[in-house]
Design brief:
The structure is a homodimer of 464-residue chains.
Chain A lengths: L7 H11 L4 E2 L2 H5 L14 E3 L4 H13 L4 E4 L16 E4 L6 E5 L4 E4 L5 H9 L3 E2 L12 H7 L6 H4 L6 E8 L4 E5 L11 H5 L7 E9 L1 E2 L3 E9 L2 H13 L6 E6 H9 L10 E9 L4 H12 L4 E6 L3 H7 L1 H13 L2 E8 L5 H15 L3 E6 L4 E8 L4 H20 L18 H4 L2 H14 L16
Helix pairs in contact in A: 1-3, 9-12, 13-14
Chain lengths: 464, 464
């Protein structure tokens, strides 16, 4: 059965429920809700713009009666195709459920609707001296609901955790149209099965989140950056292990491989020494403690293979130390118009082996592949550069992607650290988990979503 | 069907599988595996002592064929009756699966069997400069598997998290006899549904954990204690909120209410000023940072209602500041031979309201009830003192318990912060979660354990 259009009875029911301006059916309007940052696109049958949880309950029940697929949507900044309505059906955009319901400084929490922008939440929490740790690059325009869907991270996760570590409670509507409440507005709880963390990272395939209680963290008033260059990736990885093994946790610990350093220098024009690898290290704290934190991180950064260690005396100088990273993105674009950017993750000690494996794959497939990313978590962004207009190159890029995933899994890593699986990686999931685990994922999914209407075609591979 | 004895065919199969000394059937031996720290006791049909995961897979399959209940057991230190075999069946003690398989300092992780003692793990990790944050009072003789079963916490959870925050991956055998592997040995992952955190706190009702990959944390070399006394609980709770709202996280933040302070002084003989509430505050760090951390916590501890603030110049003096807490337990025993100790949790701002409610319940039921515990997490241990030999008093204690839970739930809290539900609190679970959430818990349990053989009668209330 096609889900390109709403059956008239369902269209009437949804229009009654959502009001005249709460259901978009015009193709020109629907089109803009059919893409995400994966560059994939598909046409939904309609777009719902609910304003309250009870509407979400009712719209799921109505869709379920018609077997109509439902795709929850924040702002479409995800990179995996998770919010592309490949099976048609109803896109539920949470853009009108964007309120911060409550900030409770004494309890260090915020209660929000899923459509609130990460950046808006940060501003509101900042007025009370707090922040919410997940900080993906898209923070100004991505939603908290989307962060929950893919277990978003960002550079500060190395000290403060990713989304799963920073959510206390959720209210969500299952595919059966039941509103479930899980978790407690406390930082400790041991009362039955933990659906809160289970829903995080489930990419809209189990339930639609309609309210989230977020754990806030006191905002350190000061930050200071260090930039360390190493002769090779092995020396940098050993430094990462030293930095993570001492008690002063870096608030950021970012990595660039030698190709990235070379591109930033030679193509991007960054004024940095030649080196085989680069680490950007950040300390945070207050006036009394920051110096000591910087000193501890400087000591840990030093070791065999260190080429240069630069400290930024203040925040502005810290920004200038990022020149290499900033020069990198335009440099990559001059090399090739297209890139496949995968956020694989490996144990920290395996970073050199991963970079070696990636370089071998790059030679084998005759394509530039560069690695940079969140080294403290072993979460590297592997960028396979290619020209999408060149069919042979694109095929080699796809072949390289499969080989990268195989290398990551052989190194005890996994497919994604913070982007999720979505559409683009679902066919690789069966390589990453055992058949027994995959069978259990399917069985549990069926309890949340008995008719399989929630985000079909995502996360789980096709059941053949 | 009775599960007091193994059917002969099952007894033979298990003896073949586990060897002569791997299956205990003598009543005197079985008896010692039938209790836990809840003081409840029941007789299992037999006790299995597996030495490897493959035996656990086979014994679950054998028990499933006979519909025989299975109760996983660490060392029985839990307080909720979760390891008491109330339905008979087979107790699986993990005492022979107690190996530390691997400690990887560069990857900040340890891979262990479930029967390893928490204290043994801490010693082994300490040799590499690390610790594993969960530190229940029973740490020297409780197992990591037991910590995982009830999502154990302890005083350091306020800074470093409880068990759920410190486990990266698990291997576990479901009630269907399938070995599932979940998680990755990395601190970030977004690859399908998160069974790792879901199994933590599930009290052996979903699967038997046979291997755990634990996240280790660098051990701060120094710790320093502060003791703050306040005029009333409200002033102390305001100080807790201030302490938690600034960037230097206390490594412990323990609370005693005014009755505890009075008992410690008048009955226990502790040399402390009279006060309405007490906080024990701990900072950790190294020689360069500790002073600053202590100063930051001292500033935050000061405010309206502060009666006295004492700093311990060194670790030994810190121990002496604990005199009040140490005097408390014997003082409580002189008041009444029995106590019901529940580890409820509320948002930090609700601590004063909880203590008020508990005092009202104490007056109403004419029983002493005192509160102390992990204030930074809002996780208070409510101790209802009574004489178990006095039937009327015991009935009033039970009535008080129900009223305490109602008060906690009305304050947005929940039944347990770190002990779990087990046998003793299962009848209260339906007050803490909605019918929809409870139904989903049952539905998911059935996917892990289709025949309901794993720890029957625990966590979930009877399905009537």
């Amino acid at each position: 059965m096609s889900h390109d259009l709403l059956p008239p009875a369902l269209a009437r029911a949804l229009a009654d429920l959502l009001g005249d301006d709460g259901l978009l059916t015009d193709p020109a309007e629907r089109l803009t809700y059919g893409y995400d940052n994966s560059r994939r696109q598909a046409m939904p049958a309609a777009v719902a713009l609910p304003t309250e949880a009870v509407q979400v309950v009712e719209l799921v029940r109505a869709c379920r009666r018609h077997g109509m697929p439902i795709v929850a949507r924040g702002r479409g900044t995800n990179t995996t195709g998770a919010s592309v309505p490949v099976a048609g059906g109803l896109v539920v955009s949470f853009e009108r459920m964007d309120r911060i319901l409550r900030i409770a400084p004494d309890d260090r929490l915020a209660v929000v609707e899923p459509g609130v922008l990460n950046g808006d939440l940060q501003r509101a929490a900042g007025e009370h001296g707090f922040f919410w740790p997940p900080d993906p690059t898209s923070a100004p325009f991505c939603t908290v609901g989307g962060n929950i869907a893919c277990n978003a991270g960002g550079p500060h996760a190395v000290k403060y955790g990713a989304t799963r570590d920073n959510v206390l409670a959720l209210a969500a509507v299952t595919g059966a149209g039941e509103l479930v409440r899980c978790g407690t507005p406390t930082t400790k709880a041991s009362t039955g099965y933990d659906f809160t963390r289970f829903l995080i990272g489930s990419e809209g395939t189990l339930a639609l989140v309609v309210e989230a209680t977020l754990k806030l963290t006191p905002l350190p008033p000061l930050r200071r950056a260090l930039r360390a260059l190493y002769a090779d990736v092995g020396s940098a990885a050993a430094a990462v292990a030293r930095l993570m093994a001492q008690p002063v946790a870096p608030s950021m610990l970012e990595f660039m491989d030698g190709d990235c350093v070379r591109l930033a220098r030679e193509v991007g024009g960054a004024d940095i020494p030649a080196a085989g690898a680069l680490l950007m290290i950040q300390a945070d704290g207050d006036a009394a403690t920051l110096e000591h934190a910087v000193a501890a991180l400087s000591r840990a950064a030093q070791g065999p293979g260190l080429v240069a260690l630069d400290a930024a005396p203040d925040q502005a100088a810290g920004e200038r130390l990022w020149a290499a990273r900033k020069a990198l993105s335009p440099a990559l674009r001059t090399l090739a118009p297209g890139k496949i950017n995968e956020d694989v993750v490996v144990p920290v000690s395996r970073i050199p082996a991963l970079v070696d494996a990636v370089q071998a794959i790059a030679r084998e497939q005759d394509l530039p592949i560069v690695c940079f990313g969140h080294a403290g978590n072993g979460n590297l962004h592997v960028n396979i550069l290619h020209d999408p207009a060149d069919v042979a190159q694109s095929q080699r890029a796809q072949a390289a992607l499969g080989r990268v995933f195989d290398a990551v899994l052989a190194l005890d890593g996994t497919l994604s650290g913070e982007h999720g699986i979505g559409l683009l990686k679902r066919d690789f999931l069966a390589r990453a988990v055992t058949p027994q685990t995959l069978a259990l994922m399917r069985a549990v999914k069926a309890q949340f979503d008995p008719d399989g209407i929630l985000n079909p075609g995502k996360l789980l591979p096709e059941d053949v």
